[in-house]
């Protein structure tokens, strides 16, 4: 099990390094095939880990793999490790499975592009960052993955930066996500200040001792971070413009994986939300419901199919926030896995 878990992010990281060094020499289409093979290897490792977890009893389906001591600074002890449990492995299956198909599609889609190998460098780096986000066993590693997918989103949205619309869309996404990142950082600071740990296992164990006011601040800041990453009111404005990038980017990042990061974060931190004031879940549910209605109404009036898909994505994310706010975490995750997958496949339809 321990060997399988670290292999999941290791494959796309190896693909990123190999493409940085040898990408131009490999050229088209070998660079694309290498990137696709690395993500497919990650998917295979995720499947093997999933079946290994299935072989365990319900209460033993959680493994922590610590690779090294990272930040032993005073009272802050942060290990660089991965947490494999049903939530993280479900996300890994989703991310790597969809990413493999989109990498494969991109080999043909990017045919003839002078920056063919660079595109796959960014794609592999994005998948690695997304896997760090969902596999990290503490909030700091999750935050590193959180920032990594934000940076890769900027690179990929503005990949054809010679067009003003693409460059502007990339900058808009980057700036808007920084607002959400501030909320996530504040939540990390308050969590460590209150509990003395940012490790998820420690947070779950110590969350009943949280004061209601402290839990409320942490939950509200986590919600702000999730709104930025998952495009909820009023921070939804970056996602429709981001569809100006290459279609595989729209499919991978903005209709499938990155925008679900906020849902994952709230589901992971649900013990803290449970200790917060009652108005916090209400706020999450109301914002989700308003976003779902608002974005669906806009989608009805769109003529561009990619704009329709963009606002549809925002609307469906709103339903997931409504489920999170209602305490239906399993329903939110159940809705997340099949729904964006179908949109990711469909969003590959428009020609470049």
Report on this model:
The chain is mostly helical and 352 residues long. It contains 15 helices and two strands. The protein has a two-stranded antiparallel ribbon with strand order 1-2. The radius of gyration is 19 Å and the shape is globular.
Write a short abstract of this structure.
The chain is mainly α and 352 residues long.
Number of strands: 2
Treating each run of at least 4 consecutive H or I residues as one helix, how many helices?
15
| Average pLDDT figure | 89
The coarse overall form would be globular
Gap from first CA to last CA: 42 Å
The proportion of residues in beta strands is: 5-15%
Order of helix and strand elements from N to C terminus = HEEHHHHHHHHHHHHHH
Oligomer: single chain
Helix fraction, binned, reads over 70%
Q: Return the structural class.
A: mainly alpha
| Gyration radius from CA atoms, angstroms | 19 Å
Main sheet: strands, sense, barrel: 2 strands, antiparallel
> What is the topology, as strand order, of the major beta sheet?
1-2
Task: Name the descriptors.
two-stranded antiparallel sheet, disordered C terminus, mainly alpha, 15 helices
Topology:
Blueprint: H1 2-54, E1 63-73, E2 76-84, H2 86-109, H3 116-135, H4 139-157, H5 164-195, H6 200-206, H7 212-229, H8 238-242, H9 247-254, H10 261-268, H11 270-275, H12 279-300, H13 305-325, H14 329-336, H15 338-346
Antiparallel strand pairs: 1-2
């Amino acid at each position: 099990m321990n060997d399988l878990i670290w292999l999941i992010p290791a494959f796309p990281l190896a693909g990123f390094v190999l493409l940085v060094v040898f990408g131009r020499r490999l050229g088209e289409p070998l660079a694309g095939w290498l990137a696709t093979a690395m993500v497919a290897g990650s998917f295979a490792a995720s499947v093997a880990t999933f079946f290994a977890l299935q072989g365990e009893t319900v209460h033993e389906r959680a493994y922590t793999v610590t690779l090294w001591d990272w930040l032993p600074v005073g009272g802050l002890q942060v290990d660089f490790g991965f947490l494999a449990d049903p939530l993280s492995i479900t996300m890994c299956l989703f991310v790597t499975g969809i990413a493999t198909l989109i990498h494969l599609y991109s080999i043909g889609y990017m045919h003839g592009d002078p920056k063919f190998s660079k595109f796959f460098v960014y794609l592999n780096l994005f998948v690695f960052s997304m896997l760090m986000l969902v596999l990290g066993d503490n909030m700091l590693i999750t935050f590193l993955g959180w920032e990594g997918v934000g940076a890769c989103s900027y690179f990929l949205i503005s990949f054809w930066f010679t067009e003003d619309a693409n460059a502007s869309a990339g900058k808009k996404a980057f700036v808007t996500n920084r607002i959400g990142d501030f909320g996530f950082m504040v939540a990390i600071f308050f969590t460590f200040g209150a509990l003395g740990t940012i490790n998820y296992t420690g947070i779950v164990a110590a969350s009943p001792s949280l004061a209601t006011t402290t839990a409320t601040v942490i939950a509200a800041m986590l919600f702000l971070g999730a709104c930025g990453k998952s495009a909820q009111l009023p921070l939804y404005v970056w996602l429709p413009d981001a569809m100006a990038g290459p279609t595989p980017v729209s499919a991978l990042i903005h209709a499938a994986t990155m925008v679900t990061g906020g849902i994952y974060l709230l589901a992971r931190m649900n013990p803290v939300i449970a200790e917060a004031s009652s108005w916090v879940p209400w706020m999450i549910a109301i914002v989700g419901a308003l976003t779902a209605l608002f974005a669906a109404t806009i989608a009805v009036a769109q003529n561009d199919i990619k704009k329709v898909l963009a606002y549809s994505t925002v609307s469906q994310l709103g339903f997931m926030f409504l489920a999170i706010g209602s305490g239906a975490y399993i329903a939110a995750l159940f809705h997340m896995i099949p729904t964006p997958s179908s949109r990711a496949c469909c969003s590959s339809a428009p020609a470049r």
